[in-house]
Amino acid sequence: xxxxxxxxxxxxxxxxxxxxxxxxxxxxxxxxxxxxxxxxxxxxxxxxxxxxxxxxxxxxxxxxxxxxxxxxxxxxxxxxxxxxxxxxxxxxxxxxxxxxxxxxxxxxxxxxxxxxxxxxxxxxxxxxxxxxxxxxxxxxxxxxxxxxxxxxxxxxxxxxxxxxxxxxxxxxxxxxxxxxxxxxxxxxx
Length: 189
Fold this sequence. Notes:
Layout: H1 4-13, H2 17-27, H3 34-51, H4 57-77, H5 89-96, H6 99-118, H7 121-132, H8 137-144, H9 148-168, H10 171-187
Helix pairs in contact: 2-3, 2-4, 3-4, 6-9, 7-9, 8-9
């Protein structure tokens, strides 16, 4: 049984599919993922429209697609734990204890502290209570006298800002160099 939302989607969104696919093809390198990306854009758009129909469908559709591609690109930069699973523990321990790793770790910790200090006060407090002090979302909300959904939004905002700041300041470069060193050690056996 179609709803008004379904009718809106068919009438307003589906006619933009050709333009959406052109946009995705231009901005995403793996053509095999395009149907999945299109579907995820549709899901995000439909879910958002449940809360209220956008005034301008086309800009909203393309903003949703852009945000999805940004999210996917960020996730692609994260190194999978499986990448490291084949390495011997002794190699990791030896490398972890080196003076270079110690200095690099201290430097990255300082970058994280600086990024944390740059967050707005409430966001910083939520991140600290939740991620550093280990409080639950409910405990943070009660402690600060705010709603749990506010805690959730502040955590997302804060973690995104911290990740962006760390990436901006070159932490991924250090991680990439460390990974390359480990691969050379593993390949030299």
